[in-house]
Design brief:
Strand content of chain A: 15-25%
Largest interface: A-D, 31 and 28 residues
CATH class of chain A: Alpha Beta
CATH superfamily of chain A: Ribokinase
Order of helices and strands of chain A: EEEHEEHEEEHEHHEHEHHEEEEHHH
Distance between the termini of chain A: 29 Å
Structural class of chain A: alpha/beta
Number of domains of chain A: 1
Largest sheet of chain A: 9 strands, mixed
Oligomer: homohexamer
Chain lengths: ~350, ~350, ~350, ~350, ~350, ~350
């Protein structure tokens, strides 16, 4: 059991039931999610000691969120309380030719007031072996970006491995701003997780012949991208999720792990999607678990991809899958026969 | 069919189903409400041409709200679109000894950006005979208070009757601020609606021997309060809702209409409450309908109270009751026999 | 186990969930009900061999209805199949000062085509000791009224006891028509079940000093009514349900059994109503069970009233209560302690 | 914003939730639908001034329907009120090898009593540029067919373009009757919408080598059919929906627009179906919007097909899709990536 | 209408709604199921007189189960009542790469106390033409296995055809025990139903080149297996279900009927699965119906496979499909077009 | 924050939604409960360090239960895992004259296998100030009773205060057995919680003139009972819950605390019941919190009663109420006004 930190925002997700559109619903299913919280929950299911660092409002809505994290065994003892509100995102599930739609109502959330003293960082980092963040956290606001950097410094001083999922969100910041801030943070990063689109959006890296919208893969493009990233930022380990979007209902899904000059392409799955939100985060969690526990590279990328394949079959942001379930799929049993 | 304007904020209400507490739920029932929107909907059910003035965000969440108002026949053509977000209030329904609980997440709502030019006020007021607002609207922020006053001026210039429900909200402003602003607006008001508590909170008027928490009535106290209000602000028509809270499940409910030196105390109802949010607004709507259509004072207060008695049996903020239903109850038939 | 027949229409009931009004709902709870079907189901729960005679459309909607009856152990083998449609009634549940509302969509139902040969009446009546119908059945249309009379003749020829619940429905026929037809059928009736209102509506019998809308009891009025009925139609056994409607949520409920010159007034219950539709039918079923099994008159009326008291706590038209449950309540245990 | 009229019946749809069969359910999801109402709603979402002409019962059930249409911005001011009942259709959603099943309970609906004077047709047509009807409307009864023809005459007198979706319903009339009546109406029609099956059923046009049940396309067959129709009725613009039914869950879907001698075959979509009822109507609405706004023919057919592709992913009869959403899909983006 | 007996356990199935995992749910959908009960229900839908032999606890939970069976026309008059509890199985529905998961809580169920005298076997068997059981029944416990054998003896003495679905459950007994007991029962069996896996698990028959987990078919392997079974136990008629598990959402499905030296391979369906539990039982029911009614062998296997194809589209254990529906699919119409 | 232990069984509760009876439902709401678990959850909401000792099966069902406890901040780290199954109780909610009904399916639960070594008792007790158990725990089976006594010995050795709620369950053991075992355990008990009925059932103490079924209070009877208990077992602090059952919907509720010769009768509440299961446990939790934190006796009993009054308004076994909420009610504010 490793102590693994993640830091970021967690929001309330409000979603019309089944395939109802916003304009059709008169109820919302409630769950909670956010890149780093999702990773923490998944890691806790994998048996790790997952510690989530964030700030929640000091009211019942904040409690709802904290209680959900506790239920899934995430250590919430370092979460600060205060600020104005919990961020919300409204999510309408797509199907077939109709894309899922997300409306953010996250401005003015408590985490934007995260300040020195809110969290005892030294205590939180003590004994930790890994910290994970996504590009969403520094995008929230300058104060949070600075706070994050101060945490990363403590991590590096304590020998903590740092992973980052680029995760560009154009509603939160411009590409220029993202490039400036993220480039500055790369020096703390040991493991970079991305997809082709994010590398393009954040770092402006565009290998030839890729067309993401078309949902077709181009392994060479990813390798070329990784090479540029590696040379620019000195990051040895880079992982890509490779999504081929056939439609909102069916995707192909695989992953690519690049270590130094070697690359490992995972098995590819055709997914009948139940809920794809949090798919990338479940990949990150799988990869962190695998690398933390010294899986072979090819096993690591297969575990990460199997982890996220299962996530696509689970409602909500969180990947409720155990090591045993993921290993079984990664090991080749994807027939879906009933387990009695 | 009178053209009646109301102006104010409308929010999304998120409520755990049945009697679940916030911490127990994983879904929210969705409805929409706000003092002036509630009055508009009820008036539309009474057959009036109800026009709601407000501002909603230009996204699907704003559309959801506007569509709900359209469904209930409210004229939404003057609602401005823009701003950041739709205000939300979380509502946990109480029962017996457990009070209902409301958590507001209304800051930064679109209406706070309401500005000149957003609504064509002259056009909206054209042909209108009445405008209603509550003390919540000027409490939102100074800009909205000023906007409201500018609308009231247009109304007075056009001979529009103005009613105001004091409705003090301590989360929005201090009592001192409320007293200052509301006192300034009273010169535009023809009909004032209140309860004893609001008059105390806003104007500091405290007649002897009242104890609101105990849920006991004190008619003389209300009359004394009305006298002070009438003398201070020159308002001829004052109406009070008289709530005796036995518990969150059972209330006694009646009303008092005071015109000059005369007062009219309505029939009193013992309510088994289904949903009490919006109870005061349904009283306002009943009173406006009755006074607009020149009911006798005693009929008017009985209509207003019957209107709100029915509201307490209806889920959501809106009073889905027709003139025929209210009149039947006001006329004495409250036996609840099945209507076939 | 007695073989007891009932004959009449059964409809699909469509009801908004909880206390939603028609205009608020986007789903309906589905159940089935109709006076005589309700009596049959309740009798089957009491262990009797309840046979329901009716006609249902030969499609899945008719099957849904028949299957529900089978589930509750009603003998459906004599139900004819054919005709155009299953009658529907929309039901909006009231609360407190808001009455429940029923909208009938029952015209053109299959039962209106019930014709000789549809049911093997001789076979159905064979071995039966009792037949029950309500005033709704002959009100459906002339053909059904004639069909009913032909069945009653077979019953009388076979020594079958006949009970009738007057149950006047003003949407189905005029008071004059009802009086004409029902007076003609009284010669077949051994046990008449009514309330004061029905006797007034159908037979024009109005004892002094009664005011049903006010929900106050007037035992003498009922006795006077019974005397007139007894003298006019020669019916020895007459039972009244005595409902005092405080509101749609709270009723007082008792019963009166009159045999020759003696009367037996049951215990009175204050009911917190879950669903009052079918309340009268559960009284009829309780009375039929008690009289069929030769309870003492005072026990019979107490059983009938306890049966219907429990019905008011059960969702749907059907009284899902056993002899043991009813007897326990009739015997005095209404404290509502948990039965473990 | 064009003023576009549609005329026909709208029914209440009662559907077991999810994939439950009729015999399994104890609740129904409620929505409303009917060919011409569906087209009106879709056109209103496209920003057109959609006016629906029909007749609804004057009760809460009729109100429910009218309110739903208002919610979606359809102009309901010309809908007549009266008659006996709202038609109902029960719909059981199929999956894979199990077909969806529809049971109609539409006889005796209010629209069948539609008579001169119920609607002010001159006023309704004033300013309109288009009227749409389906073959269901004249099939309802002779009176409605005559009423429809009278409306079509007014339309032609006012230069209104008329479109007709053949939509043969064998439960409503025979093929012979349909041929007779529909042939008579073709002289008013400018744009004919059909599928191969309808042309065969209504007009007896059977090109060689087609086998609809097999779900295989035969473009030449459609062109041959169009040629016959064009020659017979002088209709210049003919559009076909081309459905290849793989199963109840998966369909291929495309469209064919034929103008004079030219034809335009749209992109083809593989649909994972959420709800296919109303699929044809969303095609009609897309086509009417496109042709009304003078899209190029190939753009028009692609817009119509994209419109209906999205409809298949939406619950209920109505196509809740905007021009922007449809254009994006028609323009090539069907990858289903989350829109944030 | 044949009288067909089935004997075995029926359990309550508790399932999180939709695709929720156990750890996510706060409600369970309730249905009932068990191999032999499932067969009885399906046969009753096919119009047979299906008699289910079992034992249920004498409480409301046992009643719930019996009532559900009655609803579906199963004869429950021979079900014994008593014992401790109704067995439960918790079922989590899988999707795509995530398998469905079943947790049994069936120990100590009432059926394990089934003893001589509980059922009047002579009476139950009287007039019966067929009895069906699965390998689960003798696996429950030794007493039930002996009871079953005593029933089989009565069946053989009365000329009743006996079918057995091998259905190995490793949670109930070891392979060795299963082989011993089942081999002993084969002498009573006329029709054996199995899949390759069960024959391997129970009888240790492993033809070359099969890999069940991979979900690939190997017809020759099945034929070889059948040959061994036929030679060993003298069973003339053997049927296999052939499932190719692509994923938990998509399966290919066909069947193989082997009579003496001839075999009949059915049409193959690609199934989009709604609920696959009970799929095998619906095959058995289809086969029993077909063989009982003397279908041609190829028609019989096609009917059995079509029956089970439809089952995969239906929620719950029971196959709610009629002969007409199955015949239509078996006859080639699987296009899933709406049936109006 | 005190460390407080509770020890006992926790079960899954399966309840039909709303007021449906078992025979009407096709879904169950799921929650978890058991006397000592309920106390632990309530204490955790009061801010105490509540540690629950028990044994759960090592499967997802056991996980569901543990996760729910974690969500509510109960320390689950000492819960043993293993054994056969989680006990279940089916609960049908009563109303008015219909009592709630509980069917236990708790035999063979994991806790019955609780054995030395399953829990590190010394570690669990370390630092604890209080342990609570109910009469249900020793009633489960002899092994659990012995295990409990061994824990009580450790508690006494460590100066831990012990409270016991008598809670007689006649389904678990006879009155004679209960008397024998409970009398033996009284020497460890410092605070005894009971109602009149339990003292009668367990210890045979029957003061004159009490009639529990009638729901009338008899304070002297309770004092007499307490005197006997005190003299017999030397327990100084005794508390009674005083329930007057008007019906299943309405109860009066108060409490009595007796310390040496003094008694303190709390305020009495009239409860409109939402869910009364766990009402006694929430009283115990309130009392333990109050006595642990050295409230004055009259404050303690008022806190305990207010705690349980609120519980009756909350769905599920657990009392989701904070110290602030309970104190406010105990302090006199029970008007149920909305808290904004």
């Amino acid at each position: 059991m490793k102590k693994i930190l993640t830091i970021g925002e967690v929001m309330m997700r409000l979603q019309p039931p089944n395939f109802k559109r916003f304009k059709q619903t008169n109820s919302f299913d409630v769950c909670f999610g956010g890149g780093e919280a999702n990773v923490a929950v998944s890691l806790a299911q994998f048996g790790e000691n997952a510690v989530f660092l964030s700030k929640l409002p000091a009211n019942d809505i904040g409690d709802m969120c904290a209680m959900e994290l506790k239920k899934w065994d995430v250590d919430t003892s370092h979460i600060a309380r205060g600020g104005e509100r919990l961020g919300i995102y409204f999510c309408e599930k797509g199907a077939s030719q109709r894309a899922s739609k997300v409306i953010y109502d996250r401005a003015h959330a408590s985490i934007n007031t995260l300040a020195d003293g809110d969290i005892d960082i030294q205590k939180a980092v003590l004994g930790a072996s890994w910290l994970h963040f996504t590009g969403i956290t520094p995008a929230l606001c300058d104060e949070v970006a600075q706070y994050l950097e101060s945490v990363l410094k403590v991590c590096k001083a304590n020998g903590v491995t740092v992973s980052c999922d680029l995760n560009y969100r154009n509603k939160l910041w411009s590409k220029d701003k993202a490039c400036l801030v993220m480039s500055g943070l790369m020096k703390y990063v040991d493991v970079l997780i991305s997809n082709e689109e994010d590398c393009k959006d954040v770092f402006g890296i565009v290998p030839a012949n890729s067309d993401i919208e078309k949902g077709e893969l181009n392994i060479n493009g990813y390798l070329a991208t990784a090479k540029i990233v590696r040379e620019k930022f000195g990051i040895k380990t880079i992982a890509f999720t490779l999504r081929e979007s056939i439609s909102a209902s069916v995707n192909n899904w695989s992953g690519l792990l690049i270590e130094d000059d070697k690359f490992y392409h995972s098995k590819k799955y055709t997914l009948n999607i139940v809920d794809r939100v949090g798919g990338g985060d479940s990949f990150s969690a799988g990869l962190i678990h695998a690398l933390s526990n010294e899986y072979e590279p090819s096993d690591a990328i297969n575990f990460a991809v199997a982890s996220s394949a299962i996530k696509h079959t689970i409602e909500g942001d969180f990947n409720i899958a155990t090591v045993s379930e993921v290993s079984k799929l990664a090991g080749g049993n994807g027939s879906g026969r009933v387990e009695r």
